[in-house]
Fold:
Amino acid sequence: DAGITQSPRHKVTETGTPVTLRCHQTENHRYMYWYRQDPGHGLRLIHYSYGVKDTDKGEVSDGYSVSRSKTEDFLLTLESATSSQTSVYFCATTGTGNTEAFFGQGTRLTVV
Amino acid sequence: QKEVEQDPGPLSVPEGAIVSLNCTYSNSAFQYFMWYRQYSRKGPELLMYTYSSGNKEDGRFTAQVDKSSKYISLFIRDSQPSDSATYLCAMSEIQGAQKLVFGQGTRLTINP
Structure:
């Protein structure tokens, strides 16, 4: 497996609370991504990063923010969690000029 | 209408059968086409990658792209129980994984 670690792997949180998910990579890949996976929708891009402190929005970015202060870490924050954000979240990375995206194991988030 | 459409299944076939998985798309600018395999409770992993139209074969797997019909396929020959997984098609206008658009995924079960 590519060296991508997501934490936590499972989390249950209450509506209205902030939540931060962490993605850590050891591949020195330039690009990092956060996706969410929901039944009937496949994987949808939330935010991505093309370098330290360089991020951009994806298809479903509302209610989410990200930060990347080091090459190896990419944080996803749900500013005020809602039940619609219950999902499985995947982090992915790619190297420069590389088409293959390497995915982490996923974080299962439940907002109650 | 979604940019990429994929029948979610589930699809169940006997061991040894030929499996055909398909995706259609609406964006004629897509040039890069991928198939990812995802085992239960795991992250997706790249299975096949194709640029533009044509066929690509890798062992028991064959990927086909027909850009004129906006249709891609993945064929699995001599299917094995270990092929049981969710298969996701993904597409991009540019090289690299920065702007991947995924289908919903097809859940496949190979019965011994």
In short: Chain A has no helices and eleven strands. Residues 3 and 26 of chain A are 5 Å apart (CA to CA). The mean pLDDT of chain A is 94. The longest strand of chain A covers residues 42-51.
